[in-house]
Amino acid sequence: MSHSGKNVESVVSHGLCTGCGTCEGICPQSSIIMELDKEKAIYLPSIKAGGCTFCGMCVSVCPGKFVDFKDLNQKIFNQPSSDFLLGHYNNCYLSHACDRKVRYKSSSGGLVTSVILFALREGLIDGALVTRMSKDNPIIPEPFIARTEQEVISACGSKYCPVPANKVINEILKVEGKYAVVGLPCHIQGIRKAELINKKLKERIVLHLGIFCGTTKTFSATNNYTNQLGIDEINISNISYRGSGWPGKLSICVKNNDESYYEEQYLKYYSCEFCSYTPWRCTVCIDQAAEFADLSFADAWLDEVIGVDKCGSSIVVSRTKVAEDIIQKMQLKGVAVFSQITADKVNKSQGFFPRKNYLELENTCLWPFMGGIFHDIIMMNY
């Protein structure tokens, strides 16, 4: 009996995997593990021999294969998307954290960290799915559930490498509590899809924090850059892609005979060459704004900020009542400053948004440039 298309092997074989890790996190048999494909320099799911029962759950939650934008908008927000580029939203803000240390250490504005810290202090959540760089291997990301303020702060800043964050949702399913999750659009898509078929997960995740994304980068981006610097990745003791003000800088600590320290400004190292190391699947993504989050966050590439704001400010898009309530409470308690801006200003601030105009959304498919034909061919193979 053929089981073709009944697990994520079919997604991987068609090149559709986003590397989000949802399949590992949701698998009822714990038979999927996200492993590093050294040739492609990305994470891909691997199925343990004899472990899969072909229940199809991993395919059902996979954002790489298919995302029904119309259906998800209706089920999450009870209405269609209100903005073609931005998705459904209630309000848009320019914001920054009032804690100067958090603001300075973060990529821009410190709002993601501040929201999580505020939610912990207020008892809104018991933990948050976040990502830090591994202490044992600093070039490898480590998704985990942060339950203390110190753990939350350890996850500050962007990680310009593949992150299979959603593999950690299995801990959310095992340990009772209320949780926030932080992720890129594909992570949020995967979690929202998983919540549709797992009531426990939906009850426990009370806050979805999405980060705008202009495509992730493979591990080859960092490897190529460190090679140009003459740094052996084995000797890296710490790496930080952003932080130390805005727009920030790349910082690398190298431990050999003597400890060396390298720095490069963000706008210099984050070049066309660095960005060329992009997984193919990212290039056909139509959700750069994390449309299914409660709150979405982005760098504030605005005229009033560029060249003026050295500490960092964030664009914040509020999409739900839960999100709006948190914003109002944070403002009232002096945790963060919010000033309302238009959706048009948000859209113009993001240079990668214009490409969405070329994408075919009529049938909520993800396959641009071919008018949905590519999607139909793939689905036939399933």
Task: Give a short overview.
This protein is α+β, with helices and mostly antiparallel strands. It has helices spanning about 10-15, 20-25, 55-60, 70-75, 100-105, 110-120, 150-155, 170-175, 185-195, 200-205, 220-230, 265-270, 270-275, 320-330, 345-350, 375-380, and strands at about 30-35, 40-45, 90-95, 125-135, 140-145, 180-185, 205-210, 235-240, 250-255, 260-265, 295-300, 315-320, 335-340. It starts with 8 loop residues before the first helix and ends with a helix.
Account of the 3D structure:
This protein has helices at residues 9-13, 22-26, 57-61, 69-77, 100-105, 111-121, 149-154, 169-174, 185-197, 199-204, 219-228, 266-269, 272-275, 321-332, 343-349, 373-381, and strands at residues 32-37, 42-47, 91-97, 127-133, 141-146, 179-183, 205-211, 236-240, 249-255, 259-265, 295-299, 314-318, 336-341. It is an alpha+beta fold and 382 residues long. The protein has one domain (9-218, 276-381). β1 (32-37) and β2 (42-47) form a beta hairpin.
User: Element order, helices and strands?
Assistant: HHEEHHEHHEEHHEHHEHEEEHHEEHEHH
Separate helix tally: 16
Q: Please give the domain count.
A: 1
**What is the strand arrangement across the widest sheet?**
5-4-6-7-11-12-3-13
The share of residues in helices is: 25-40%
The 3D shape can be described as globular
Instruction: Please state the structural category.
Output: alpha+beta
